[in-house]
Write a structure and sequence with these properties.
With 325 residues, this protein is mainly β. 6% of the residues lie in helices and 37% in strands. The chain is built from 3 helices and 21 strands. The strands form 5 sheets. The chain has a 5-stranded mixed sheet, with no helix packed on it. Strands 5-6-7-8 form a 4-stranded antiparallel sheet, with no helix packed on it. A 4-stranded antiparallel sheet has the order 9-10-11-12, with no helix packed on it.
Length: 325
């Protein structure tokens, strides 16, 4: 999630996009319970042809003179392919649902896109009075939470233990960013943590806490990814708002979904999003007293619909691991 109030003061007047929403319904609700071959070397010998019935001398002489071996295919290099299986406990500590973080009460929830239900997992206590601003979830069961001062904390999803990391914005100079995990390609379980600020997308190494920049971004965005090696960015300040598929090697834009039904950016307080089972789930709060987060779904063709209105809390971060469908 990223707050848009400061960004919009620099962005000038933006077009109104309007919301083409479905009727206000709440099929979901709050649930306070926790989620729980060998190579082909050809024929070995040259057998006589049983159809040959010539028993004369010429045939016998020909057979005696024929000493060349039969034709055979060249040997095939049968060096085994080195497999890279995931660890035995891979994804054991991580739900395959979407995690969301509430700003005002620091509660962590899972969101089930199938039932549209939020389930509380408990309070996130990172020993800071600052508000959380963005979140990403690793398949190893760790959520990384960026706070409004750009400090990053690690949250153990099994124990809800929160600890500061070695990330320093003073050192990187990257400024506020959205973040999300994506696998390196569709054939591997290995993934990386991607980050994006208002002008750049890069990779954040959680061992060294250095950022390797990949390419340019047109405006502030949030990120999400999946096990298919896809990295997506949500850009609410574009006209109209956009979802972009980003090349994980170069940062280039590979695909764009334009969201003509997205709310007017000048009215947005906070936003977050995540991909799940080939679709996108947007968590957006409109500014105003009493307003809480609305939930939208964007299908793979860009069709946008409203799922829930005023869920009762303000989502400021959404994360999904690459264990999810």
């Amino acid at each position: 999630m990223l707050s848009l109030s400061a960004l919009l003061s620099l962005s000038g007047c933006l077009n109104d996009f309007g919301i083409q929403a479905m009727p206000d319904t709440k099929p979901g609700g709050l649930d306070s319970a926790a989620d729980t071959g060998p190579a082909d070397t050809g024929p070995a010998t040259d057998s006589p042809d049983p159809r040959d019935t010539d028993t004369g001398t010429a045939a016998a002489d020909d057979s005696a003179d024929d000493t060349e071996p039969p034709d055979s295919d060249p040997p095939v290099d049968s060096e085994p392919v080195v497999e890279d299986p995931p660890p035995a406990d891979d994804c054991d500590e991580t739900s395959d649902l979407i995690y969301v973080l509430s700003r005002d009460d620091d509660l962590l929830y899972t969101f089930d896109p199938a039932s549209l239900r939020f389930t509380s997992l408990g309070e996130v206590d990172c020993n800071t009075s600052l508000y959380p601003a963005s979140m990403a979830v690793s398949r190893a069961g760790i959520a990384y939470v960026r706070y409004e001062n750009d400090e990053v904390y690690s949250l153990d999803l099994a124990t809800m233990t929160c600890s500061p990391t070695g990330y320093s914005d003073r050192r990187t100079g990257f400024d506020s960013f959205g973040m999300g995990y994506a696998t390196d390609d569709p054939t591997t379980w290995r993934d990386q943590l991607y980050v994006a600020n208002s002008s750049t997308v890069g990779v954040l190494d959680t061992n060294t806490w250095n950022i390797q920049t990949l390419g340019a971004m047109p405006s502030q965005s949030e990120l999400t990814g999946n096990a298919a090696g896809e990295l997506w960015a949500m850009l609410p300040l574009e006209r109209p708002a956009q979802l972009r598929r980003i090349d994980t090697a170069s940062g280039a834009n590979l695909e764009t979904l334009r969201l003509s039904a997205f709310p007017d950016p000048s009215t947005i307080d906070t936003f977050a999003f995540a991909t799940w089972d080939g679709e996108f789930y947007l968590f957006v709060r409109i500014s105003g007293m009493g307003n809480t987060t609305d939930v939208y779904r964007v299908e793979r063709d860009g069709t946008m619909s409203t799922l829930l209105r005023d869920v009762g809390f303000n989502v400021v971060g959404a994360g999904v691991s690459t264990c999810a469908p």
